[in-house]
Design a protein that fits this description.
Layout: E1 3-6, H1 10-21, E2 27-30, E3 42-45, H2 47-55, H3 59-63, E4 71-75, E5 81-86, E6 98-101, H4 102-117, E7 121-122, E8 126-132, E9 138-144, E10 147-153, E11 155-158, H5 165-170, E12 179-192, E13 199-204, E14 208-214, E15 222-232, E16 249-250, H6 252-258, E17 263-264, E18 267-268, H7 269-274, E19 278-285, E20 298-300, H8 303-306, H9 315-333, H10 345-374, H11 380-388, H12 396-399, H13 402-416, H14 420-425
Bound molecules: flavin-adenine dinucleotide.
Residues 6-12, 30-33, 39-41, 43, 102, 126-127, 159-161, 165, 186, 246-247, 302-304, 310, 315-316, 319 line the site of flavin-adenine dinucleotide.
Amino acid sequence: MRIGIIGAGIGGLATALSLEAAGFRDITVHERTDAIRGLGVGLNLLPHAIRELTELGLRDRVEALGVAPETLVYMNRFGQHIWSEPRGLAAGYRWPQLSVHRGRLQLALRDAVVERLGDVIRLGHRLVDVQGGDDGSETVRFATGDGETTAAYDLVIGADGIHSALRALRYPAEGAPPWSGLTLWRGVAEAPLLVDGRTMIMAGDGEQKFVAYPLGAPEGGRQRLNFIAEKRGTGPFESLKDRADWNRAVDPGPIAELFADWRFDGLDVPGIIANAEEILEYPMVDRDALPQWTFGRTTLVGDAAHAMYPNGSNGGSQAILDARTLAFHLGTAVRAGASGGAGDPAQGAAIDAALAAYEEARRPAMTALLAGTRATGPERVMLLAAERAPQGFARIDDVIPRSEREEIANAYKRAAGFAPSILNERASLSVGDPA
Ligand SMILES: Cc1cc2nc3c(=O)[nH]c(=O)nc-3n(C[C@H](O)[C@H](O)[C@H](O)COP(=O)(O)OP(=O)(O)OC[C@H]3O[C@@H](n4cnc5c(N)ncnc54)[C@H](O)[C@@H]3O)c2cc1C
C-alpha cells in the first residue's frame, strides 16, 4: 500500500514512524521547505505523547533532548501562588512529561525516519492539489523548485500544519486562522534556576501572562529557559495577526518593557525577556473544529486537523496521538504489503474502515479539547483569581476553594486524555500488542 504524507513537522514524521512500526513500508513524506532546519523554540510533550514515543522505541533519544518538569505552578501577576501540581512521573504517570526544543525534536524524528525507512523525505515539495481517481488512488500535485511533479498514493495524510493546503482544498472558504486577540512572544534565554530547576511556571491572567520552563540542565545555578510572554492586543509591533508565521523575529527590548514590574520571588521576568537569544512573535490563533477530516482516501493529522492554542501544552502531543491512532487502525485493518492497493475492493474497504475508525477515535475528542482550550483550559484558575481578587489575595483558599482548583486541573486532563488512571491503564496503540 502506497502512503503519501504531506509535511515533515512533528505530526508528519511521527505518522511515518508509527506506520513503519505498524508494518507499512511504502511511505513517502513530502515537505514544502528545502531543508529541515529544526526551527522553533520549546514545546512540551505530555505523558500521553511520551508513552507513544516510548512504544516507538524513541524514548531514550527524546529524553536526551529535554528536561522533565516535575512541578507546574500557577501564579497571579503579583507572583502569588494559585495552584501547583506534580507533573509526569511525580504525578503518578508511568511516563514523564518532557520539555524539548521543537526543532531538536523534529531533527531527531527526521533521523529516526531515515534510519527506519531510508531516503523517503522529499524536500521542496509543496502540495497544491489532490485528485481522487476511479481506482481509489489519490494523485497529488506538488509545486517544486523547478516546476511541478505528481505522485499517486493509496492514502494521503495531510500533516501540513495550521496553514494546511490539504485542509484548504476541502474547506476552501475557511480563510486565515481566527485570532484570539492575544499576541505571543516566544523565546529562549539563559537565566538563574527557575525554583528547583525542574519547575514550570505560569504567571498572570487573561490579559497578560508569562510562562517559563527549563529546556536545559542546571549548570552553576543557571539554565536555559523557554518562555512565552503574552499580552492582549498587538503589543508594540505592527503585529501580523492575520499572518501566523512561526519565524517572525522581533526586538526583545519593547517586550521586556511590557513586563517591567513583573519581578517576584527570584523570578525576574523583564530580565529573562531582555536576555533572550531571539524573540519570535506569533498571534494566538487556532482553527475551528471540523465536521469531517477524511475525504476519499485522504485524511488530516495534527495542526492540519485541529490547531489549538498553546494553553495546556497539547499541540505536539495530540499530533503524536493522531499519528499513533491512525497507524493502529490502518495496521489492524489493512494488509500493509498488498499489491492491489486501494483499487482492490477488499483493501479499499479496509482502508475506508480504518480511516473511519481513526476519525471516530480522534475527531470528537479533539472537538471537545479545542473548545476546552479556547475556554483557557487548565489556566482558568488564573482567570478566576484575577476576576475575584484583581489586587491579589492573602489566602488563595478564600478566593478559589481547593476543590474548585482541583476540578479545573482534573477536567482538562480528562478532556485531553491524560488523566493518570486513564492513560496508565488504557490499551497500547502498538499493532498486535495485547498490553
Ligand atoms: C517552523 C515552525 C516552528 C514552530 N515552533 C513552535 C514552537 O516553538 N513551539 C510550539 O509549541 N509549536 C511550534 N510549532 C508548531 C508545532 O510544531 C505544532 O503545533 C505541533 O507540533 C503539531 O505539529 P504538526 O506536524 O501538525 O505541524 P507543524 O509542526 O507545523 O508541521 C507542518 C509541516 O508541514 C509543512 N507544510 C506546510 N504546508 C505544506 C504543503 N503545502 N506541502 C508540504 N508541506 C507543507 C511545514 O513546512 C511543516 O514542516 C512550530 C511549527 C513550525 C512549522
